[in-house]
Amino acid sequence: MRDSVSPLHGANLSIAMFLQQPAPWKSSVLGALCFSADAGDAGESQMQTDTDIPCLRVPMQRLDGGDSFCEVWRSSAALTQGRCGAIHYRHDEDVLFGVLVLPETMDADAGKTPLQQATESAYRQVFALLDTLRYPYLFRFWNYIADINTHSFGLERYRQFNLGRQDAFLAHGRDVVGNVPAACALGFHPGTSAPGPLTIAFLAGRVAPLNIENPRQISAYEYPQQYGPRSPTFSRASLVHLGQDEVLFVSGTASIVGHATLHPSDVVAQTRETMTNIAAVLAEANRLARQPSFDLASLYYKVYVRHPADLVQIRNELERIVGATLNAVYLQADVCRQDLLLEIEATAGHPLVTMSGARN
Ligand code: 3EB
């Protein structure tokens, strides 16, 4: 069975440390998200060539020390790997982790923008692969989009992404309300003048997750038209039972109540509102969980910060709310509304324990 407390969420470490791990450890890795500002990082190119591990390289600066950060997803079962179209994946019997990076090079066609087309193509490839390999349930997506707040073709790029994403869900007969995966969507600044590439990771499996909404917020899939012609297709969290474990994926969460951004120019108040939202999602998760023991102190956080100068204030506020045991990594990223100064995503897991203390 899987490792104990954080079953899938195996480790957070630098790219250099990742490369130094012994081969048996590497063979237990489902995949990783690797964040570093330097696209030409020697360790990273080594990582692409030395290992067959699906690694998503995300060009974002780590703000809290260290030049890189890898979020590693692991399994203790035997893994199979493969490539299909743009997707590179590994899976065990229960879970599949995949990554794909698509250029925004398609010709404008049928009134669709290149980003919209890349998004639709990416999601259609993911859904087709999951149908073929029979991992029908999506737990979580990570979406990284170049210049997410820039306008082109008369529409903000995040909104173009939402068009392509929803069309792919619809084309595969998937729900676009209610039963949708957890996700995050953040912006990076590409090193070149060409926009892109669209950079995506995902986790899927063979057991249906519970999709969780936040009673303080309108579901994102029901956001009104003022946020774009198509609503974003994601839930506030997903809760999955995997073997002996219960795993919670909390989507990117921001200072939004109802559908409106609160505290547009107050980063401390946005931090507090975001954590109140995460606490509300945890309360919902605990209402639905077999073992209702999710709390703010037991989460692993990724904190996406728009302005690096806000790091200290955000970190102080998070430590005040969560306590000294706060487990967080900070990355520079653009958030999908211009007035949002941060977005926080989180993961937690625990083994299910019976009354006698044995795992059930
Ligand atoms: C929000 O609550 C903030 O489009 O996949 C958070 C998580 C956000 C996921 C997505 C967007 C997405 O609307 C933005």
Descriptive labels:
single chain; about 350 residues; alpha+beta; 60s Ribosomal Protein L30, Chain: A; 7 helices; 21 strands; about 25% helix; globular; disordered C terminus; binds 3-(2-carboxyethyl)benzoic acid
- Shape estimate: globular
Summarize the biggest pleated sheet. 7 strands, mixed
**Portion of residues within helices:** 10-25%
Number of domains: 1
Q: Name the hetero compounds present.
A: 3-(2-carboxyethyl)benzoic acid
- The side-by-side strand order for the widest beta sheet comes to 5-6-7-12-8-11-20
Which class do the helix and strand fractions yield?
alpha+beta
Distance between the termini: 12 Å
- CATH top-level class: Alpha Beta
- Kindly report the name of the CATH homologous superfamily: RutC-like
Using only C-alpha atoms, the radius of gyration works out to 19 Å
Parts with pLDDT < 50 across at least 5 consecutive residues: 1-6, 356-360
Q: How do the helices and strands follow one another from N- to C-terminus?
A: EHHEHEEEEEHEEEHEEEEEEEHEHEEE
The helix count comes to 7
Task: State the total count of DSSP E strands.
Answer: 21
CATH architecture: 2-Layer Sandwich
Mean pLDDT: 91
| CATH domain topology | 60s Ribosomal Protein L30, Chain: A
**Percent range for β-strand residues:** 25-35%
